[in-house]
Amino acid sequence: MTLSRSPFVLLPFFLLSFLAAPLASQPANGGPTTLEMYDISDLSRPLETLNDPQDQPPNLDELTMANAENLARFVQNFITPAFITGTESVKAMGKSTLVALARREQHVWIQQFLAQQRLDRNAVFLLETRLLRVEESELEVLGIHEEPTILPEESDAEDFLDRVEHSVRANVISAPKLLIHNRQEASISVGKKISYIKEYAVATIEPGNREIVSPMIENVHEGIFFEGMVVTLIHDMIGLDFKLTVSEVDRPISTRQTEHGEIGLPIFHTTSLSTKMVLRDKATLLFPTQGRDEDRTVLMVTVKKVDVDVLRDLEEKDRR
């Protein structure tokens, strides 16, 4: 490992800690690594403060730090060639600097990635999501596999939806859409809220030493919760980093009688899976969830880069 030229004469203690593990060994199948620092002060500032300098949210420092950490996360997840665990990595150093210990070709990728972020600072994406309910026996017929499947062209997605429409064992149950800015987090929740009495609160009222019993209502979500971020990558690719959570409640909901009344004891079955995918613009991702019965829920996500000028015109029309 070698250190690149840097304006710093002394390395801060946390940088020495950052280098401690890699100093012991070199990548077995990589090559020499160098430490580089990248100025991201213009990229870590929240988008609204760049568009309007007078707009200073009270949690500006927190938002800026989160943006810096997300940039490091995107580099870690999507860099090509991938980092070798334990010897190569990237971290946010405060709110304005990325520190990367990487090979030469990885540093080139980081430079190109950051340049792409500056070009696509105002990029907006449309996430077209569909939830499908598919019988287990129909998965293979429709071309749905246990692992996430990418449909690279719009025509592929259209053909898939046509097969779903003509199937008696599959149907679309929901189709929410979402606009999301480059590198900004967004979420979609599809399902229903379930309310039940979790417990009873007892208060004593004076005079008279009277007791008032009030039910404590708990609300829980049953369904699918999708949260993720989209980022522009080099070579016209798009990175999708998301987490999918599926929550189901056993029916009927179990109950227990107490001295003040009946309370609910719902049994939840929750599965979560985080993944990252690299897609082309207008590509579609098919993501089956684990099922507890003969039907399976399949998440279908299409990512489209939206023309900012067209979006601005639509917003102007809405304001009129």
Strand residue content: 35-45%
Low-confidence stretches: 2-11, 19-25
Query: What is the mean predicted local confidence, pLDDT?
Result: 84
Query: Number of DSSP strands?
Result: 16
How do the SSEs run, as a string of H and E? EHEHHHEEHEHEHEEEEEEEEEEH
Helix amount, in percent? 25-40%
Radius of gyration: 25 Å
**Major sheet summary line:** 6 strands, antiparallel
So what's the overall shape?
globular
Our measurement of the CA-to-CA distance between the termini, rounded to an integer number of angstroms, reads 60 Å
Query: Tally the helices: what do you get?
Result: 8
**SSE class:** alpha+beta
Give a quick summary of the entry:
With 320 residues, this protein is of the alpha+beta class. The chain has eight helices and 16 strands.
Defining traits:
alpha+beta; four-stranded mixed β-sheet; 320 residues; 43% strand; 16 strands; 26% helix
How is this structure best described in words?
With 320 residues, the chain is α+β, with helices and mostly antiparallel strands. It is built from eight helices and 16 strands. The strands form four sheets. Strands 5, 6, 7, 8, 15 and 16 form a six-stranded antiparallel β-sheet that branches. A four-stranded mixed β-sheet has the order 1-2-4-3, with helices on one face. It has a four-stranded antiparallel β-sheet with strand order 9-10-11-14, covered by helices on one side. Helix 1 links the parallel strand 1 and strand 2. The chain is globular and about 75 Å long. The protein starts with a strand and ends with a helix.
